[in-house]
Write a structure and sequence with these properties.
By secondary structure, the chain is of the alpha/beta class.
């Protein structure tokens, strides 16, 4: 992560339209160092050369479209964590869903509204600054390499306030390793540590958007924050996390291979000033307990529990 004191953050604009590039440069040029490319192939080369803080990527381009371009960006270990904001004249909701599913951080529709463009880019820069802050302040769990509980709490309260201001939705996943005590008793605590590290890696890799945030909550519990995510999207991500962990091999210290599973509780909310963050967390925890009670290795939605109570 590059430190940014008095140095401008950098943006790479990949778009085949000179007019679009000129407009974006006029909107953003005063605040950021701008690099440009006219197609996906040149954009990948520019990304490797400059390693920008944020990439603004057009969808419809010759030679290589935006979807193909982001797929290759996500395959490159040096580029995969750069936030990608898609821009397009397409207004189909399915296009937006596809862009976000491929790991896009955000989506801007043409023609450009300068204020919206600045806000969307600014939001990604704030996330990057926050990640840098975590790295500086030691808010990372030393065993797993992801955020610890303190780091998660700070991020949660920040995103909660932002979601209230923007009248959006926010989702959370409460994740617990199934039968972890039995695993430790069978294989030993050092191998249990390998399980924790493996699961943390799978969760982090499954959360494709830079704004998504995973942390070790404590013991064998993990938690994931999904800003700007509705219930449908959160459910899909939770199921992907569960499935990815189920099929992941855990290699023990003696070379043997084993497997493990997780139970996940999902809660989605459109918060207001009257809502409580603690209730948001508590309800995700309730859904997690329901998933465990129903047989484990499954996803349970708090909204479904509410329906059952009525």
């Amino acid at each position: 992560m590059k430190e940014q004191n008095n140095i401008k953050r950098s943006l790479l604009i990949i778009d085949d339209s000179p007019l679009n590039i000129a407009v974006l440069q006029r909107i953003l040029g005063e605040d950021y160092q701008i690099y440009t490319a006219w197609n996906g192939i040149d954009g990948l080369k520019a990304a490797k050369e400059h390693e920008p803080d944020v990439i603004i990527l057009d969808i419809i381009m010759p030679k290589m479209d935006g979807y193909q371009t982001i797929a290759l960006l996500k395959e490159d270990v040096h580029l995969q964590n750069i936030p990608v904001i898609f821009i397009t004249g397409l207004t189909d909701r399915n296009e937006e869903e596809k862009a976000l599913a491929l790991g896009g951080a955000d989506f801007i529709v043409k023609p450009f509204n300068p204020a919206i463009v600045k806000l969307r880019v600014g939001s990604q820069i704030r996330i990057l600054n926050y990640i840098s802050q975590i790295e500086r302040m030691g808010l990372v769990d030393s065993m797993t390499g992801i955020a610890n509980r303190r780091g998660f709490d700070e991020r949660l309260y920040s995103e909660w306030k932002r979601t209230i201001r923007e009248e959006g939705e926010i989702s959370i996943l409460a994740i617990d390793i199934d039968f972890f005590k039995k695993y430790n008793d069978t294989y030993g605590h050092l191998n249990g540590d390998l399980v924790l590290k493996t699961i943390a890696d799978v969760i982090a890799q499954t959360l494709k958007r830079p704004g998504d945030f995973a942390a070790r909550w404590g013991g064998e519990e993990f938690i994931a924050l999904l800003p700007d995510t509705d219930l449908k999207g959160a459910t899909a991500i939770a199921e992907q996390v569960r499935a990815n962990i189920e099929k992941t091999t855990v290699t023990l210290r003696d070379g043997r291979n084993t497997y493990t599973t997780v139970s996940i509780g999902v809660n989605t909310q459109k918060p207001s000033a009257d809502c409580c963050v603690d209730d948001f967390l508590h309800d995700a925890d309730e859904a997690l307990y329901k998933a465990k009670a129903d047989g484990r290795n499954r996803v349970c939605l708090y909204s479904d529990m509410q329906k059952e109570e009525k």
